[in-house]
Every structure is written in C-alpha cells, then in structure tokens.
C-alpha cells in the first residue's frame, strides 16, 4: 500500500464505513477466510473490497489460497458498491477491487487494470413456505413487481399475501431484472427494499411467502433452503445458460494495480489458474 498515512481517512469517505477501525478488521464467516487476532511478523496482507454481490467468489478463492500459503493473510473490508471499491483501489486503500461491471473510462486513471473473472447467474426464488409455484412467466413476474398480483393463490399457490423483496434501482440485480423481465415500467412502492444482497437473502429465508432475486452461486455454496423458480419454463442452470435459454447473468470482474505487490500478483495468478477455475465451477459460477 502506497499511501498508508492517509488511507484510513479516505477509506471512511470512499467506502461509507461507520468507523475507520472496520478497515483493519474482518469478521470470519463460513464462506470467508478466517482472521487471526494478530499477524505474524512475516505475514503479508492483501486487502480486498467490492460490492456485496461480488465478494462471495473472492472469499472462496481466498480461503483456498490461504490454505496453501500460511504467510499470506487476506482481509475483506466492508462491502460497498462497485464504484466505491474501485475508488478505494485508486486511492491505495485496497489491493484488489471486485466489481459487477467492466471498468468505465471515467473510473480508469491509467494505473489500474480489470479482467472478467466469472459470470454469476441470478435466480428468482421464494421462501420455502411457498408451495405450488415453481415457474413464473415474464407477465406474471412483472405483475408481482407492479402489485397487480399480490396473492400466491393467483399463481396456483396458497391463499397468502406475496411479500416482495427488492433491491435499489442502481444495483446490478435490479438492473438485470429490468433488462430481461421487468422492462422500464415503474415497480411497486410496497416492496421491501434491501440495500445489500446478503440482507435480501437473509430476509427471504426468514420471511414466509416472500420472493426476491439473488445469486444462484450463493444459493449453491450455502445450500439455501429456498425454492428456485423457473422463468418462462427455463430453470436457472449452467446448462441452460450455455445453451442461451437462460440469460439473466451478472458480470463479476476484478481490478488491481498495473504494478501490484508480489503477494497480490501471486494471488491474481492463482485466481485465474486452472485450480481457481475449478473452484468457481464447483460452486455454481461460470469462469471466464
């Protein structure tokens, strides 16, 4: 990191963190690398930031990489939007930024590079309390998002109110829903808006009769007990994506400095290695 002296201050502004201390600490989870309370004097640290919808894949890769490289510690700072992570990278707060979009000309300062890592299919799923509904047409899905259909009974399910969980308009999941199914029509103001994908997933699992869209790979990795819906009769599977039948797929890319540190470059090499690709395939992602 080149600008340690002022990176904490910039980090809080760029990433919208509630406290600067969170940059130096991570919370281990089942899908993230474990964090030790103290660092070995010889241990090298790689810092990663990204949108909540893209860090899952890097946590998987980091876990595998650290298992064979004890001298490396990979830290994930608080999730932000892709734009915030790229800004943090340009300010030398992090070493790698994950993003749900390709690097835009206005984001490129000439010192960073980007590369597509994988594609992540988005699925529409319901809480497992929803019975009798396994497929939605484009017309039905639009009707749900516009509050024209408000009860599962109208779709062949039980007599229960539909609880719609949605994402902000500038999030990748909502953009993809609009591109392939919802179009530009205004969606209902009665939906529960959740800023982070993880929040939507947790809420969907805990809220009977709810429906929402999120990462298929996350569902596979965590074996979520939810009902994955077919759309227009097409299941959200890798095979259907490869055949062109299922198109709602999110870009996952990573950005890093053109002259990275040796540890960062070694991790980048691992990410794009055959072993890295195998990890992605085994967990529901589609490697580039």
Task: Describe the structure concisely for a colleague.
With 288 residues, this protein is an alpha/beta fold. It is built from ten helices and twelve strands.
Listing every helix as H and every strand as E from the N terminus to the C terminus, the arrangement reads HEHEHEEEHEHEHEHEEHEHHE
The major β-sheet equals: 10 strands, mixed
Number of strands: 12
Which stretches are poorly predicted, pLDDT < 50 over at least 5 residues? 1-38
**Structural class of the secondary structure composition?**
alpha/beta
Strand fraction equals 15-25%
The helix fraction, in percent, is 25-40%
Task: Indicate the radius of gyration in whole angstroms.
Answer: 20 Å
Which geometry do the CA atoms define? elongated
Give the terminus-to-terminus CA distance.
Answer: 28 Å
Put simply, the count of helices is 10
Mean pLDDT: 86
Structural account:
This protein is of the alpha/beta class and 288 residues long. Helices cover 32% and strands 22% of the residues. It has ten helices and twelve strands. Strands 1, 2, 3, 4, 6, 7, 8, 9, 11 and 12 form a ten-stranded mixed β-sheet that branches. It has a two-stranded parallel sheet with strand order 5-10. The longest helix has 13 residues. The radius of gyration is 20 Å and the shape is elongated.
């Amino acid at each position: 990191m080149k600008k340690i002296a002022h990176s904490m201050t910039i980090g809080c502004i760029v990433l919208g963190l509630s406290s600067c201390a969170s940059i130096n600490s991570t919370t281990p989870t089942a899908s993230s690398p474990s964090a030790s309370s103290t660092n070995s004097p010889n241990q090298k640290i790689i810092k990663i930031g990204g949108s909540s919808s893209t860090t899952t894949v890097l946590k998987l890769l980091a876990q595998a990489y650290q298992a064979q490289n004890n001298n490396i510690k990979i830290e994930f700072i608080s999730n932000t939007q892709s734009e915030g992570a790229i800004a943090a990278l340009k300010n030398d707060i992090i070493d790698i930024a994950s993003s749900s979009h390709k690097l835009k000309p206005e984001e490129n300062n000439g010192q960073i590079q980007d590369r597509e890592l994988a594609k992540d299919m988005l699925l529409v799923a319901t809480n497992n309390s929803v019975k009798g509904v396994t497929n939605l047409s484009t017309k039905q899905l639009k009707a749900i998002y516009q509050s024209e259909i408000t009860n599962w009974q109208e779709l062949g399910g039980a007599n229960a109110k539909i609880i719609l969980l949605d994402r902000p308009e500038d999030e990748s999941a909502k953009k993809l829903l609009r591109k392939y199914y919802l179009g530009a029509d205004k969606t209902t103001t009665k939906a529960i808006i959740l800023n982070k994908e993880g929040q939507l997933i947790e809420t969907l699992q805990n809220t009977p009769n709810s429906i929402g869209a999120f990462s298929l790979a996350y569902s596979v990795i965590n074996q979520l007990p939810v009902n994955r819906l077919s759309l227009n009769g097409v299941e959200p599977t890798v095979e259907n994506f490869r055949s062109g039948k299922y198109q709602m797929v999110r870009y996952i890319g990573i950005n890093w400095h053109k002259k990275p540190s040796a540890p960062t470059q070694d991790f980048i090499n691992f990410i794009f290695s055959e072993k890295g690709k195998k990890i992605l395939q085994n967990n529901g992602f589609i490697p580039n």
